[in-house]
Each structure stands twice: as structure tokens, then as C-alpha cells.
Amino acid sequence: MPRVTVHLLRHGEVFNPDGVLYGRLPNFHLSERGHAMAELVAGHFKDQADAGNAPVYLVASPLTRAQETAQPTASALGLDIVTDPRIIEARNHFEGMKVSKGELLKPKHWRYFVNPLRPSWGEPYQAQAERMLAAARDARRRAFELGGDGAQAIMVSHQLPIWATRRSAEGRRLWHDPRNRECTLASLTSLTFDGDDVVGVSYSEPAAALLPGAATTPGA
Questions:
Q1: What residues contact residue 168 under an 8 Å CB cut-off, 6+ apart?
Q2: How many structural domains is the chain composed of?
Q3: SUPFAM superfamilies, per this entry (predicted)?
């Protein structure tokens, strides 16, 4: 069967001076560092293109930070950005809040902690992985139509959906300690497909030079 790689690209750093969990809220733009991260990723893919292995299909979450991360790569490769709502950030009860120990201990939130394995405070991990993998398989098919065997696609998404997708693809349990996610800003989690089956997962950080000092507040 033909092999295609779909790169799950996490967006760059977000301008978020209040440190809120921004989730699906609109108008959270990249910071200056985030734009620089997006440019580094674009350079990474341009180097691949110059070597004769250019990604041929580019998809992004509808959220502002994902669209802004995708733009330099679209310009570098001459690709249109296809917007896919299936790769949006996870839903989360705490969206828009500055999450702290004091906030989490408020009784009004307690009912959202009844099942941390699902999790009960937001979109189930399983639902995230399913929608992301469905979108990745569609991106795989479109990339193959455009580039044939060995083609590449890029999907610009968000940390938690990417991490849930990776754990699902690797056959691992989906509940996890958020502090242990391997999905830094502007990182690539790359799925190798043989037909519609994921047969390999790799990880890289083309913007690693800009990670020291970057914001660590997650989107969800």
C-alpha cells in the first residue's frame, strides 16, 4: 500500500498576558515569538521542498493561532490553507479562566472532577482522537491524490488533540498526566500511514531554539 506522512503541527506561542486557558476562544493571536516559531517551521518544510520532498496539502484548525501558524508555511510552499473544524482545540469547562489551585478548589467546579480518566471537565480524549484521526486519514488521501506514494500533508492543530491522537495511534491509554505531554509549541508529531493504517509515529521540534522562555500555559 502507498505510504503518506501526515504531520500534526502544534501552533506557536500565543500572546496571553493574563495566563488564561484560552481553549476555543476567538482572537488569541500568536505572540512575536510565536510568529518566529511559525517562520522556523516554514523554513523546515521549505528545506524539504528544496530537497524534492515538499508537503502537498495543508490543513489548519479554524482558531486564529492555528491559522497564523499555518500562513508562513502556506507562503513558503505555495499552498492554500484548508480549514477543518475537526482539528480544533478540545472543549473545556475552564475555558477563559486563569486556572489555579485556588480556582480548582471552589465547590462550583467539583462536579467536573468526577471522572479524570474521561475527562469529565471537557471533551473526552477518545472523541478528540477519533475526530483527529478521521481528519488525518482524509488529509492522507488528499495528499496521495496530489503527490502519490511518499507524499506529505500538514495539519495545524493544538496540544491536547495532537497528544490524544498520538497516544491512540501508539495503542496507549488516553488518560495521562498533562505535565508529561511531549508536544511542545510548534512541534511536529508525524504519522506515517500505510493506506488508512498508522504504521509509524515520530516527533521533532523544528522551533526548539525558541522554546527556552516560551509561555507554558496550555490551550486546554
A1: 126, 129, 133, 174
A2: 1
A3: Phosphoglycerate mutase-like
